[in-house]
């Protein structure tokens, strides 16, 4: 019997998205062809966006990379400005470091809205910081795009009308993991996962899909703690594969603990494990050799043979990143797509009015740098399932294998 396909309808869906929606960069900078009614805001000639990111603390492994992507994209968009009604507006980004603390993120969200007068916000790489920010954003009715991952960031929808997220949905990641386990004939699996909303979402999706083959589960203690006991609980049951559902640096620490406990089986990471920290040195690369990860396909970068507008924009982004930071690290630049989505919504709505940005954001379908998105009034996230791919650690790098 042929092995099941790991990818899912990639050509059809991505082709439709490219053909019908174009790219976020092209849409945001292109001419205004909408016939939408509505006034043009004439006060400020800027589109003001606030960003609260994890530049320090446990979330910095992802937060710093998102800040880099965001600064590159804002500079790119500001070369020509964003057409909003009869004005071409520059994007004014206001950056804040929330230190990976939810209470700080909540305070910053309040200040960005009430003192800085932002038209929209983005941020919250950690689920907890996103949840803290979205409470303020929803109350103040300010569009907010979360960079975090947890089911309850965008549900229940009746209480999240101004809230959107970009990271892949857990069920889509788990579907690909299920196909991968079946293709490799792994009949038992262990799950080691982080605490909090991120781990809760992941393990819930895993139980729903893989309950019959999950042999053991183990929750990780707080970041910076000793993970040995959690790893030993997994190793005692000796599953054929272990899924690590945790964000860096916890994901890499969990891997080290498993290897330290003499586990030599297959390791599979969720997207949160793909960060510089996981392959930071030769020891970590050796521990991760052969490990697999489900992650947005943007991790593979781009090639000279890619010819769609999305591919060309992705290539331009990668070039700019290399020019500025020396090497492209392969992270999924959710913040890049977030600012493009907000700029596009303002363009379509011909206004920086918060309510109008929300309305047009709610109906966007687009191919971004990190992946594809399709927002509707009944679905506010995340990334389309066919934006995902499987990668393997080979010679210290993430190499796409499907």
UniProtKB/TrEMBL annotation:
It holds the Pfam family Peripla_BP_6. This is Branched-chain amino acid transport system substrate-binding protein. Belongs to the leucine-binding protein family. It comes from the Bacteria. Keywords: Signal. Signal peptide: none annotated. The lineage of its organism: Bacteria, Bacillati, Actinomycetota, Actinomycetes, Micromonosporales. Residues 49-395 form the Leucine-binding protein domain. The keyword Glycosyltransferase does not apply.
């Amino acid at each position: 019997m042929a092995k099941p396909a790991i990818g899912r309808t990639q050509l059809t869906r991505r082709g439709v998205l490219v053909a019908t929606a174009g790219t976020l960069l092209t849409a945001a900078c292109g001419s205004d062809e909408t016939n939408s009614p509505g006034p043009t805001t004439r006060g400020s000639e800027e589109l003001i966006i606030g960003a609260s990111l994890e530049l320090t603390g446990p979330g910095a492994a992802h937060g710093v990379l998102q800040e880099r992507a965001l600064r590159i994209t804002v500079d790119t968009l500001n070369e020509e400005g964003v057409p909003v009604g009869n004005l071409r507006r520059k994007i004014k980004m206001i950056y804040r470091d929330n230190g990976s603390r939810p209470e700080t993120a909540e305070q910053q969200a309040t200040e960005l809205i009430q003192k800085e007068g932002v038209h929209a916000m983005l941020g919250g790489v950690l689920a907890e910081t996103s949840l803290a920010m979205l409470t303020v954003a929803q109350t103040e009715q300010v569009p907010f795009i979360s960079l975090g991952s947890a089911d309850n960031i965008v549900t229940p929808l009746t209480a999240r009308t101004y809230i959107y997220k970009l990271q892949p949905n857990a069920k889509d990641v788990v579907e690909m993991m299920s196909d991968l386990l079946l293709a490799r004939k792994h009949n038992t699996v262990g799950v080691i996962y982080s605490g909090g909303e991120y781990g809760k979402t992941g393990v819930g999706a895993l139980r729903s899909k893989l309950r019959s083959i999950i042999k053991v589960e183990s929750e990780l203690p707080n970041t910076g703690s000793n993970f040995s006991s959690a790893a030993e609980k997994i190793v005692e049951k000796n599953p054929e594969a272990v899924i690590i559902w945790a964000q860096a640096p916890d994901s890499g620490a969990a891997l080290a603990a498993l290897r330290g406990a003499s586990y030599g089986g297959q390791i599979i990471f969720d997207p949160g494990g793909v960060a510089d920290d996981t392959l930071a040195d030769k020891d970590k690369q050796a521990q991760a050799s052969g490990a697999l990860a489900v992650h947005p396909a943007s991790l593979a970068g781009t090639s000279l043979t890619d010819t769609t507008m999305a591919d060309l924009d992705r290539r331009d982004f990668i070039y700019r990143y290399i020019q500025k930071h020396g090497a492209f690290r392969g992270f999924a630049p959710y913040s890049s797509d977030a600012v493009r989505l907000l700029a596009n919504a303002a363009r379509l709505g011909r206004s920086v009015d918060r309510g109008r940005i929300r309305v047009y954001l709610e109906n966007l379908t687009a191919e971004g740098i990190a992946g594809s998105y399709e927002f509707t009034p009944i679905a506010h996230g995340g990334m389309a399932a066919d934006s995902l791919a499987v990668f393997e650690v080979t010679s210290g790098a993430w190499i796409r294998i499907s």
